[in-house]
Design goal:
three-stranded antiparallel sheet, SH3 type barrels, Helix Hairpins, Alpha-Beta Plaits, 9 helices, single chain, alpha+beta, about 55% helix
Amino acid sequence: MDIEHQVSNATSVVVTLVATYGFRVIGAIIILIAGWSVSRAIYTAIVRLCERSTRLDRTMALFLANAARYAALVFTFSAVLTTFGIETTSFVAVLGAMGLAIGLALQGTLSSLTSGIMLVLFRPFGIGDRIEAGGVVGTIREINLFYSELDTDDNVRIVFPNGELWGKIVKVPSRNDTERVELKFTRPLTDDIGMAIDRVKAIVAHDNRITRVAQIGIDAVNAGDFVVIVRLWVPREDALQTRFDLNRAIKEEFQKNPPAAERPDEQAKAAD
C-alpha cells in the first residue's frame, strides 16, 4: 500500500508539473522559433528596402538590419521570460544591479560595439574599400555591430574587432583615385647617366595610363653602379599592371643597347 501510495503521489506530481509547465515550454519554443524567423525576415526586408534607396549605402543598410534583428531577438527573449511568469521589470532590475560587473567583464565587447556605431556614423571607410590595418591589407566585405570582415589579396577572410579599426591607424588607399608607382633600376657606372634617364623618360612618355610623372632621377650612386628611380601617378586600378609593364619595357630597352662593359665583344676583349 505504501509503494502504491508513493507511486500515486509521484504520478500526481508529474502530471501537475506537466500541466503547469508543459504548455509553457511548448509556448516558449514556439515563441523562440517565431521570434527567430521574424528577426531574419526583418533583417532581409531592411536590407532589400535600403538597397532601393540611393541615399543609403550597404554599410548603413547592414548596420540598420543587424540592429533591428538584435532588437527583435531581445523582444523574443523577454516574451519567453514572460511565458514562464518571470516579470521583465524584475529581470531588468537584476541586470541593472549586475551592470557594473558585466561592463567590466565585457569591456572589449562593449568597446567593439561603440566602435561599430562610430564607424557607421562617421564612415572613415565603407564596404568595398581597400584598407590596411594591423599589418593586414584587404577589402572590406561587411561591417557589423561588433566586428568587420575583410578579404585579403589571397582570398582569406579576416575578422577584425571594430575596436581595432576605430581606435588605431587605418590606411584607406581606395578613397583616392590615383596611386603613386615607384620603380628602381640599377645600372653600371660605365653607362651614361643622362642617356639612361632619357631612355626611361621615353618609355614613360608613351604609356597613356600615366596621369603625372613626379620624378625621374638618380636615387643612389654605389661603388660599381647607380640607381635610376621613377615616381609616377596612375589610376589606382591600373597601378599593379602599369608597374609590371614598365618594368618589362624598361628592362628590354636597356638590353637593346647595353653599355660597353655589358657587351659580349667588349667582355671578350677585356678577357684577352
